[in-house]
Write a structure and sequence with these properties.
There is one protein chain. It contains 8 helices and 7 strands. By secondary structure, the protein is an alpha/beta fold. It has a single domain, classed as Spore Coat Polysaccharide Biosynthesis Protein SpsA, Chain A (Alpha-Beta Complex), CATH 3.90.550. It has a 7-stranded mixed β-sheet with strand order 3-2-1-4-6-5-7, with helices on both faces. Helix 2 links the parallel strand 2 and strand 3. Helix 5 runs parallel beside helix 7. The mean pLDDT is 94.
């Protein structure tokens, strides 16, 4: 049987978020559900195994490796990466899959009109400014189509064939940025929907602002010369 939509849930000690979010996932529109876990010790793995959901344990750490493991294991034509930490709205899952009917990659943008990011209302939304700056740099350097407002957000869907074409080799949290950049370079069709980024539920962010920002800058320079 041909599978169309594969939902790949990425976890690392997110039991509080998983408990709060899982029942909100629209499973009716999903043909395959699998979890890639980075070695949780808080009950996250048991939560899914108790529901007979396939869990892949990644030996090599890092978000990029989780993406690659999930993409390789998934059987669907369309892949969607979802982190159940409260930031990502499960109500947008169907919308992202639907966008793949007319595009190669679909991104849930925190910066389109009617969107919301977790720093809205803060006096100094430094992370949001940095995200917008990196998106601007990528669009100026490579984009010849519709401007992509959120090149970094990991809440996205992509056709499996497109993912394989991009030959992703980034490490850590740079993987989403590389996917966006190489999609621009390859002339792929990328579309966005506005999303509401909620507050994190439990756990802690794995991305530290300054080291991550420096890593993004180095990666941007690397892509310029590839």
């Amino acid at each position: 049987m041909t599978m169309k939509n594969s939902l790949i849930i990425l976890t690392l000690n997110e039991i509080e978020g998983v408990r709060a979010v899982f029942d909100k996932i629209p499973l009716a529109g999903i043909d395959e559900l699998l979890v890639v876990d980075g070695g949780s010790t808080d009950g996250t793995i048991d939560f899914f195994k108790n529901r007979d959901i396939k869990v892949l344990i990644q030996e090599k750490k890092g978000r990029a490796e989780a993406f690659r493991i999930g993409a390789q294991a998934a059987q669907g034509e369309n892949l969607l990466f979802f982190s159940p930490d409260g930031n990502e709205n499960p109500g947008d899952i169907v919308k992202l899959f639907d966008l793949l009917n007319s595009s190669d990659m679909a991104i849930a943008s925190r910066f389109l009109r009617d969107a919301h990011n977790e720093e809205d209302g803060k006096l100094l939304p430094l992370r949001a400014w940095a995200n917008k700056a990196f998106s601007l740099m990528a669009n100026i350097a490579w984009n010849r189509k519709v401007y992509i407002t959120d090149t970094i957000n990991g809440f996205r869907a992509i056709k499996k064939a497109a993912f394989e074409k991009l030959n992703i080799d980034a490490t850590g949290f740079v993987i989403e940025y590389q996917m966006s950049i190489r999609a621009m370079k390859s002339g792929l069709e990328v579309r966005e929907i506005p999303t509401y980024e909620g507050d994190r539920i439990g756990g802690s962010s794995k991305a530290k602002s300054l080291p991550t920002g420096w890593l993004f800058l180095k990666f941007f320079m690397r892509e310029l010369f590839i």
